[in-house]
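Give me structure tokens for this 60-residue protein.
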Amino acid sequence: MIALCFMAVLAALAGLATVGLALGPLSAAASTALLAAPAFGAVSLASGLAAAVVAMRRYG
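Here you go.
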């Protein structure tokens, strides 16, 4: 469960970094960053939900 939570937080931070890169002064990589940000968000959402399911089954 800790690994899933770590992966969720890491993916969320990576998504935030890619959005910052897309909006920043380096606009050459903006299209790639704009495509990668939703992928990081999906990974963060999926791993966060999986961690919640594991926690509910373990403690609920």
